[in-house]
Design a protein that fits this description.
Structural class: alpha/beta
Strand content: 15-25%
Helix content: 25-40%
Strand order of the largest sheet: 7-6-5-4-3-2-1-8
CATH architecture: Alpha-Beta Barrel
Distance between the termini: 18 Å
Radius of gyration: 17 Å
Mean pLDDT: 95
Order of helices and strands: HEHEHEHEHEHEHEHEH
Shape: globular
CATH class: Alpha Beta
Number of domains: 1
Largest sheet: 8 strands, parallel
CATH superfamily: Alanine racemase
CATH topology: TIM Barrel
């Protein structure tokens, strides 16, 4: 497995688009992450806070750590000192907790609001109504230690590329709609996180700015770590 070459190939496919690569390093050992780091990759995505915290302490300090997995509110405090972007804010309560922990650490933490766009019930995320409820809440302006910078979504796990495209297009439409409608001191629309190893090519065509790619870089997931 040639991590350097894999990153070069993916980076090449991103040329001419607005998308950046988030290397999904969950379950991967530090040695492999360092290989990717030495190949020039600086943005890494994790889905477990404890694992991300351990890695952040052991690996180079200029790595930009993104939390891409479901977040339990009682664990936000462990990543509040260093996380660069949380892709998976899927409730008003979680947004408030991130703000609370960011305030304690004298930081402003960037967040994406996660939308439920897939047909599977297993995916987390906000409905369109829940999204608008957050953006229209007068209390949102009180959260001065978070910054909402975009939306994230995960497509249905299917071979049907038409369905995947439809879901990404729907998310992009929602993003463009809220981007033109909702403005505040703690909102700065700039990121649309969609697309993973199996579908990031479609996501790029539909306007993704962050693609979350793991197995195409590091090989298939290792659940034993």
């Amino acid at each position: 497995m040639d991590i350097k070459n894999n990153i070069a190939e993916i980076t090449n496919t991103l040329q001419g688009s607005n998308a950046r690569l988030v290397a999904v390093s969950k379950t991967k050992p530090n040695e492999l992450i360092l290989e990717a780091y030495n190949a020039g990759q600086r943005v890494f995505g994790e889905n477990k806070i404890q694992e991300m915290t351990d890695k952040s302490e052991a690996l180079p300090k200029d790595i930009e750590w993104h939390m891409i997995g479901h977040v339990q509110r009682n664990k936000v405090k462990y990543m509040a000192t260093f996380v660069s972007l949380i892709h998976s804010v899927d409730s008003w309560k979680l947004l408030k907790e991130v703000n609370k922990q960011a305030l304690k650490n004298d930081r402003v933490i960037d967040c994406l609001l996660q939308m439920h766009i897939a047909e599977e019930e297993t995916k987390f995320g906000l409905s369109k109504d829940e999204l608008l409820e957050i953006l229209e809440s007068p209390e949102l302006l009180d959260l001065q230690n978070i910054r909402i910078i975009g939306l994230m979504g995960m497509a249905t796990f299917t071979e049907d590329k038409g369905q995947i495209r439809k879901e990404f297009k729907s998310l992009a439409n929602t993003y463009n709609e809220v981007k033109s409608t909702y403005h505040a001191d703690n909102i700065e629309w700039k990121e649309l996180s969609m697309g993973m190893s199996g579908d990031y090519d479609i996501a790029i065509e539909e306007g993704s700015t962050l693609v979350r790619v793991g197995s195409s870089i590091f090989g298939s997931r290792n659940y034993n770590n």
